[in-house]
Write a structure and sequence with these properties.
The complex is a heterodimer of chains A (about 325) and B (about 475). In chain A, about 75% of the residues lie in helices and about 0% in strands. In chain A, helix 6 crosses helix 10, helix 10 packs antiparallel against helix 13 and helix 11 runs antiparallel to helix 12. The N terminus of chain A is likely disordered. Chain B has two domains: about 230 residues, 3-Layer(aba) Sandwich (D-Maltodextrin-Binding Protein, domain 2); about 220 residues, Periplasmic binding protein-like II (D-Maltodextrin-Binding Protein, domain 2, 3-Layer(aba) Sandwich). The two termini of chain B are about 20 Å apart. Classes of the chains: A mainly alpha (about 325), B alpha/beta (about 475).
């Protein structure tokens, strides 16, 4: 690589000079413009480097250490790949957490998001009281996830909670431990998460549906297409940009899942999630900064998949 | 994590009216060897601290007037009022030292302790004794206070003295209050059904069976937050395997491993009583467990003395009067005689990195001496009655019967532990580690625990050296 460029540089010294000259001659930008451009590009870039890439690289670096957050990092703290090795082979919480994140993603993708889309399609049909339904379904989106966690904890609490009491399970002695039974508590909080996610998807999709050209539907109807056919063959393809946004939103929601599980029991006993493992390891009295960083790096790699997919799609549309 | 219980009693704690508080004006400002100062701080700083408002030619390690900052995790109303009362009393007694109290939410304070102590902490801060205290002392984030301790140690028992010593043998804290763990019950329920206090394991289980027949939940148990189960592990391990084994196990000393058959035996014993626990206990908070006892739905509850706060919060003094407790029954081992129990001790410490400490060290030490007085600790106890003063000269005449009994049960114990999450490393005892492991055990208590114990040891081995 270097030898090739060096050889080229030797071969055509004048050409290089010519190019540089020509560029200067034809520049449409004044010095003021260039300064402005440099500022406009440089400032966000600097912020991005300092606030996003700096910590990211620091995390990657820390993931090879056993630093406990006290004192300075020394060579002694460097442990190589030990954190990763333990995470994948010895740490009993990693794979359950990974699995819970996947379940979260599948649930949101195949249950919550389709429901949100269904609600949007139904509300788009100008049924009576459409505005009221919209507000009702959208209301949870206004709440912080922490608040959603609190609200649903109150519903699910075994002895005093609404659900067990409403169904008379407390009286009859058949208490269901919605929060403490590791077989069902993940699904219990997925219902809570969906409660919010459905409204979110619904409002996004509704906004998209409103912008679909009505003449397209009319043409489909004239051609004798059924409602279902119209939706899947005409509306859905037209909605492609919104669909991508919704897929990305769903992926992000499932990767950053944290609040509800943390509020309920700090993410243990069946509610382990990758984000919670990071917090419990590095941002707590435990202070296992190195190991927490290793989990964070894995989560970063996983997150890159939808981000890259989304960006490449956006780039393609722009080009 | 475990001490989120203290954060949680917040809402329910009934702040007692602080009536007739006397300002202890017996200015016992000790005068000790000036040379000691040189050992523990700069002489120049000390002189600076004494400057200005010093009322007399005080040549001790303490200083009057000036300023002092205090970082406190006492964020619930009772603790907050108690600490403010102490700050005011200290100011009055110490030549008008201006005390700034910075109160931080209990859980937040705990989670951020590492960065707090390394950043710009206050001169003096509230903390826990045990491994949690020694850990930060080892890391050089606390100032040793041997001079203060030698002046006040006659006011404390040997057990308390041991609780504030670092691994290097220096004193790092002043113990201010504690609360024992025991089995709580309602006197009226027991009298109506004719139950008697069980003294051994078989009686205990027989009583549970009887309660079950009577339609009660024999043992209230609530472990959503993960830490309450550690109390049961502690007491069973202490009674079955003894204090030394327990301490070695929790600190990994002398090659003690979690895979030891003695630990298997503890789980086996434990599985004999899990069928008596509250239904859906993994989804209940300790407050909800206390409510089962309060509402006469449960017969017994193994918890700390702070369970009385929940009874007080009910608003019916009659309920508080019905609360009583007994020491955990003997399990038939040679260690029963130790009568060991958990009695966590709260302490005050002097930080190391406080930017003002070079000026305030004299005041900080005066404050530590002040905290070692019974009269000061009673000020706090009046506001936060779920904890008991540690000083021998505390006025015990005003204690209610329950507190008196709590003092007695602790004094009978030959060995005292601090509680699992104070005796073991925080990274092992938290939700990541033991809290999760115990919940796993409790989800199928009768199963084989070999795999679980193996995972415990694997997790322990993965932790970085301390």
């Amino acid at each position: 690589m270097t030898t090739r460029t060096a050889a080229r540089a030797v071969k055509t010294p004048e050409a290089g000079a010519l190019v540089a000259q020509r560029r200067r001659r034809y520049s449409l930008l004044t010095r003021h413009d260039k300064l402005l451009l440099a500022l406009m590009v440089g400032l966000p870039l600097a912020l991005d480097l300092i606030l996003v890439w700096g910590p990211t690289l620091a995390s990657i670096g820390l993931s090879f250490t056993n630093w406990d957050g006290i004192g300075n990092l020394t060579v002694k703290n460097f442990v190589g790949l030990k954190n990763y090795q333990f995470m994948f082979t010895g740490y009993t919480l990693f794979w359950p957490a990974f699995q819970h994140n996947v379940i979260w993603l599948l649930w949101l993708t195949f249950v919550a998001t389709p429901l949100g889309i269904l609600f949007a399609v139904l509300l788009d049909r100008d049924i009576r009281g459409s505005r009221i339904y919209q507000s009702v379904f959208f209301l949870p989106v206004v709440l912080a996830l922490v608040v959603v966690g609190f609200i649903w904890t109150l519903q699910y609490t075994p002895t005093d909670g609404f659900i067990n009491n409403a169904f008379g399970l407390v009286k009859s002695g058949n208490i269901i431990d919605w929060l403490g039974n590791p077989r069902i508590n993940l699904y219990a909080i997925l219902v809570a998460a969906s409660w919010r996610h459905i409204g979110y998807v619904m409002i996004l999709y509704l906004a998209g549906l409103k912008s679909v050209d009505p003449s397209l539907r009319e043409a489909a109807r004239v051609d004798g297409a059924t409602e279902v056919q119209t939706f899947f063959n005409v509306v859905l393809p037209v909605m492609a940009p919104i669909n991508v946004v919704i897929v990305v939103v769903t992926a992000i929601e499932s990767l950053r899942a944290f609040d509800i599980a943390f509020i309920i029991n700090q993410g243990k006993n069946g509610l382990e999630l990758l984000s919670i493992l990071i917090t419990n390891n590095s941002i707590s009295e435990a202070s296992l900064v190195g190991f927490g960083s290793a989990i964070a790096v894995v989560l970063l790699l996983i997150s890159l998949v939808p981000i890259v997919a989304f960006l490449s799609r956006v780039m393609r549309t722009l080009a | 994590m475990g001490d989120s219980r203290e954060a949680k009693r917040v809402a329910n704690r009934l702040a007692l009216l602080n009536t007739g508080v006397e300002l202890p004006l017996d200015l016992d400002l000790s005068r000790r060897d000036m040379l000691k100062i040189a050992g523990f701080g700069s002489l120049a700083a000390f002189i600076a601290a004494c400057g200005g408002t010093t009322t007399s030619g005080n040549t001790g390690i303490t200083a009057t007037g000036g300023k002092l900052s205090l970082g406190s995790y006492g964020s619930d109303p009772g603790s907050k009022a108690g600490i403010q009362a102490i700050a005011d009393a200290f100011s009055g007694a110490n030549g008008g030292t201006k005390v700034t109290v910075n109160t931080v939410d209990h859980g937040t304070f705990q989670n951020q302790i590492t960065s707090y102590l390394q950043g710009t902490p206050e001169d003096v801060f509230t903390w826990f004794s045990g491994h949690r205290m020694r850990f930060f002392a080892d890391k050089g984030l606390a100032t040793p206070i041997d001079d203060v301790w030698s002046a006040v140690k006659s006011n404390f028992t040997a057990g308390f003295e041991a609780s504030i010593k670092g691994n290097d043998g220096h004193a790092y804290a002043v113990p201010t209050d504690y609360y024992p763990w025991a089995v709580f019950y309602r006197k009226d329920v027991w009298a109506a059904k004719g139950y008697t206090v069980p003294t051994n394991w078989d009686d205990f289980k027989a009583l549970c069976d009887k309660m079950k027949k009577d339609g009660l939940t024999p043992i209230a148990f609530a472990d959503k937050d993960g830490w309450p189960a550690q109390g049961t592990f502690d007491i069973l391990n202490l009674r079955m395997n003894g204090y030394d084994f327990h301490v070695n196990l929790l600190t990994g000393q002398n090659g003690q491993k979690w895979t030891d058959p003695k630990v298997t035996a503890v789980f086996k014993k434990w599985s004999e009583i899990t069928k008596y626990y509250s239904p859906a206990f993994a989804g209940l908070t300790w407050e909800q467990g206390a409510d089962q006892l309060l509402r006469k739905q449960a017969g017994m509850y193994l918890l700390g003395l702070f369970v009385s706060d929940e009874f007080k919060a009910s608003g019916t003094p009659a309920d508080v009067d019905q609360l009583d407790f007994f020491a955990f029954p003997d399990v038939g081992s040679s260690y029963d005689a130790e009568k060991a129990l958990d009695a966590p001790i709260d302490v005050y410490m002097v930080s190391k990195k406080s930017p003002a400490l070079s000026n305030d060290l004299g005041q900080a030490k005066a404050f530590m001496e002040f905290m070692a007085k019974g009269s000061t600790q009673v000020l706090y106890w009046k506001n936060a009655p779920g904890s008991i003063p540690t000083a021998s000269d505390a006025d015990t005449s005003q204690y209610p019967a329950l507190t008196k009994k709590a003092v007695e049960i602790v004094s009978k114990a030959q060995k005292i532990t601090q509680y699992f999450d104070r005796d073991s490393r925080p990274d092992f005892s938290g939700p990541n580690g033991m809290q999760g492991f115990l919940l796993r055990f409790l989800s199928s208590p009768s199963g084989d625990t070999a795999g679980l114990q193996g995972d415990m040891q694997k997790f322990w081995d993965s932790l970085p050296p301390e």
